[in-house]
Amino acid sequence: MSALRPVHVVLAEQGSVSTEQQAMAYVMEGLVLVNGLPVQNPRRLVGPDDSVALDQYLRTTVF
To answer: 7: part of which helix (H) or strand (E)?
Structure first.
């Protein structure tokens, strides 16, 4: 059985964003990277070996 979960859920659990809704918005804007590549589908499934992060531009301008 795989442990795949939606990228917006993983981002929220990491504490990178306040809510899953905020995570979904960032994903749809293309501001979330999975394994270094931008994703725009908040339902994109990621596994435990995938790297999920906010785009560097977002981190330096918002936080």
So the answer is: helix 7-14
